[in-house]
Request: fold
Amino acid sequence: MEPLLDIKNLVTVFDTERGSIRAVDGVSLQVRAGETLGVVGESGCGKTVLSLSVMRLLPANGKIIGGQIVFAGTDLLKLSEEEMRARRGKDIAMIFQEPMTSLNPVFRVGDQIAEAIRLHQQLPAKQAMALSVELLREVGIAEPQKRARDYPHNLSGGMRQRVMIAMAMSCHPRLLLADEPTTALDVTIQAQILELMDELKRKNKMTVVLITHDLGVVAQAAQRVAVMYAGKVVESAAVEDLFDRPLHPYTQGLLESLPAAIASGPDRKQYLRTIPGSVPDLYHMPPGCRFSDRCAHGIERCRREEPALAEITSGHHVACWWAAGE
Reply:
């Protein structure tokens, strides 16, 4: 069965005053219809740029210089801007990281949802507004008719996030990209948002790419996970497989730094483990494996040759000479 989304060797660069950087460097990912793929990694690893590349919504100094983004059999990079605009919102939608900056502060939230409906479904204004109210009700906002007349600043963070979900769902997209949808929300609201997204996914037979730095969110919401580091995917596997048997030293470090892992250990007074060193400078990438300077298992080959993402066990891929037994 062909994947709904097939990203092949994608390279996205940004031109800056200091030079050019590869924010996404040779990333390949497949997302199957109906699943939730979690993309996890620390800030600056390229997760958000990956999603913006799929949407073709890069800032002015960003551009895709290589690879393919095949959605439902069509390479999105070969579409004209007009053709891509028709796909956004209708076939592929995105929940952006900061709802307060993504929502227009001078328009009522109902009008903002209705605009997307009118654009893609060619409905009259009155009918589009009625659908907006229904969508607000569907995402669990009380008094949706009243809230549709509110401005973004009148709503709490959790309600703004629900509005963003309603907007993304307005045209029943086949693929939803959710960029840190629970950031800055308290634990209770976070759980509600994840539950809502899962419910809407099942109801609308939707596919989700969930971008997050939170491994707990991945464990709760995703079926497969890809771990990114310094612009590359270093490991991908089914969620249970990755949590039970992480192969890449970076993934192992991420899991060992979780508070829950410490709290359940034999010595509950031990300090949180950390990954030594820091992420390499994107302007001056080291040769070989980009994690080698921080890795306890690094050998000379790691600092000389860059490992490719290879399948170690069924469905479990890793880019690491040590994990591959080299």
